[in-house]
Amino acid sequence: MSEVLVEVKNLAKYFNLESDFFGRPTSVLKAVDDVSFSIHKGEAFGLVGESGCGKTTIGKMLVNLYTPTRGEIVFEGTDLTKLSEEKRRGFCKDIQLIFQDPYASLNPRMTVGDIIAEPIKINKLLPSNEIEKRVTYLLNCVGLANHQRNRYPHEFSGGQRQRVGIARALAVQPKLIVCDEPVSALDVSIQAQVLNLLDELKEEFGLTYLFIAHGLNVVKHISDRVGVMYLGKLVEIAPKKELYSNPLHPYTQALLSAIPFIGPTKSKQRIILTGDVPSPINPPEGCRFCSRCFKKTDACDGYIPELREVSPGHFVSCRLYDET
Amino acid sequence: MLLEVNHLKTEFQLKHGTVKAVDDISFSLNKGEILAIVGESGSGKSVTSLSVMGLVQEPGEVTGGEILFKGEDLLKKNKSEMQAIRGDQISMIFQEPMTSLNPVYRIKDQIMESIMTHMKLSKKEAWERAVHMLDIVGIPSPAERAKDYPHQMSGGMRQRVMTAMALSCRPELLIADEPTTALDVTIQAQILDLLYHMREKFNMAVLLITHDLGVVSEAADRVIVMYCGKIVEEADVRTLFEETMHPYTLGLLRSIPRLEDESEEPLYMIKGMVPNPLKMPTGCAFSDRCDKCMDRCRREMPELIERNGHKVRCFLYENEPEEAEKHE
Amino acid sequence: MTKKKAEQPTESSQAAVVLEKPESQLKEMWESLSEDKAAITGLVVITFLALLAIFGPLIMPYDPNFSDMTKSFVQPGAEHWFGTDQLGRDIFSRIIAGTRISLTVGLSAVAISLTVGVVLGSIAGYSGGKTDTIIMRFMDMMLAIPSILLAIAFMAALGKGIDKAVIAIGLVSIPEYARIVRGCILSVKENDYVQAARVIGNKNSRIIFKHILPNVLSSIVVRATLGISTAVLDTAALGFLGLGVQPPAAEWGDMLGRARGFIFTAPYTLIFPGIAITLTVLAFNLLGDGLRDALDPKFRKN
Question: What coarse category fits the chief subcellular location reported for this protein (chain B) (predicted)?
Fold first, then answer.
């Protein structure tokens, strides 16, 4: 396997919702709690989980939208969490983000050409006379026509806007792109177009992706390895083929089973989880999936599972696999 | 036959022209049946459901056709008559369960209000019924949760409350507009399961509006595929997935990333995008994006043709029966 | 062959799209505004007043400050359209001269409160936390005192004069602008495109000026338009109390204040300045309301 591009070590992000009179937190939302994983160069790492599991928070910490409470983000040997604001901003050109909502992520008062040119100008990557050409090239890359550059975002459809968002992310020639559910707001027929585009661009520019999604089916197509998150914790990491053919964690099994089968038969035996995801505010100690797990036994109570490698490259955090 | 929609037309008068959001569609729905209308944004699926409910808002207007509910034309009813039918015989659940519940009232007040208006029950009876309904839709300790405000509940819980509210007056028809779109996969499975059981329990018909073919395959009995305001294909769910006819339906099915798909090939794509509703192509609305487009498709709009209960709007299937006869 | 044909229509339809000029938000706003009769009336009146303020001296029949005691309290008529005041000055000329004063004071006062308010509101809204608390609590303290009382207090500290009136009126309405700007920024700040601006490496100041403020500009413009009418009214009030413009300068509020003793003997000395004030305030209010409706998509038709 190629070298590691980014390594996340014991990363945590807490939000203090309420504090007492002395400023001591009384209510803490643990959005991400002690998560470690690494992404290799040229790889697409899928991060899957339901809303509130912390997957987006991890993405936002990578692109400096949130400051981690604890832990390290080591990017090509540099720990980004220890840098000054000024130096940290310098890494913007290496790590970019594609947003979920193509309607909200483009400034409505800027033309598409300006939106794509802005990151180049700010990071002073090209002399101003070459920017024009670069924008044309980028528009071309994402399948938009050059004559569309002077138009405003509201004149475009959702799929086209997402293409603009992708071009903006590509403009700084990043090494890592965090794709935060880039297709979930798009129509079905457009989703495939955007997924294929992302796949092509990855080959063409040698990009590395952190691909965040809430469903395992979307991630399957694009990722090489997949991590599954639940309530701020990573519960399983495995190479794609391994994860889909041999899911170990009960939650992964339930997620896979919950994806509707598209076809004439309704034969599949489904695991329907009971109840809701518990609130990430003051979450339970021990295994966080306990309250909904269909394989829970008395021994699970109070047991704190660790993420362990059970077969090469396959990590899982569950008591069931700790006994051996 | 519970609901019969004939040649329904709903148009939106905009500054730059008229958008035919629903353009001459007809379908029917039997008691106890789940009929899904699938389509992408702009296909007119939601406007169809709003037309049936009589909730189309300015600048939209139902301009033609009839909507027969138990033999009576809903379009001929006045406002107060429609109000009496809505929530009583026809109920609706929406995509976003947060905005469809009033944030300043407790759950119980909202359910009881609808029960008391439509079923003429006393306050005590309404309370009992409300708790009973919350219990049926699977809310744990319903008597206590009924005193919660909407914001104290999760998305899945709120959708259950909405369902409980919609079902509280025993409607004969439930219109579910994207009921699971805002929910997580594991919660979506719960709600679909719930809809399926409620249908059996109350022998109620469901009109399920969705963009997700997965939801269709899980829950529906019969499916209508809409594109640009028109029905392009209609069949029972099994036939639709086994013998897909219209190139659009086929394209949709092929472009969804599948779990069981092991290939590393790029996904199938439907090229281009939905045409601007103000500048519809003259022929078939899908012609610009279709793999099998013929010259004729650009000139004229194909009719909806029916064969063994399977309806499709495409020239590809126009001549087949004759040819089949010839072969015999 | 078939394939080539298949591609042609898309090309031509794209060409058709290019020819259509993109509709800017400004143009859309104007279209919506032009349907609003009240707002257009307001705009026409304001334009008229502005022209009067600029070219007034050219059409004034008399010197507004020229006093001819032999002609005091002349009834409105052909010679003096609006009559003369107790000092024999032509009221028509004085009203025209007052237009310039009122509009100048209104605009400059709004300019002061707008600039300071936008800066304070932006800082408070964008940085949040303690900075926000300190700035906004101070604004709250200012809001707790009735604005006209505060303006009088400022005048007392600064002394009389038109320039001081401008400063006093400007200062007292800072909190309103700061509040509105802060509120807008708080709502715009959470938008993905503001976060996107951070992700591509923008500095905070650039994010505020390039990405946030242009998107809250519309609300600020509306508030400023309505603010001019308040400022005009406040100027008149200060003038009425004898604190604003110093004699003999013609100021509507001052005219009103000096004429109030003659309300029964020579009502026209009061009526015309009163009409001028009402008309100006009304025009700005109508335009402001129209702008708000035009900018709010909820009110916009289609």
Answer: membrane
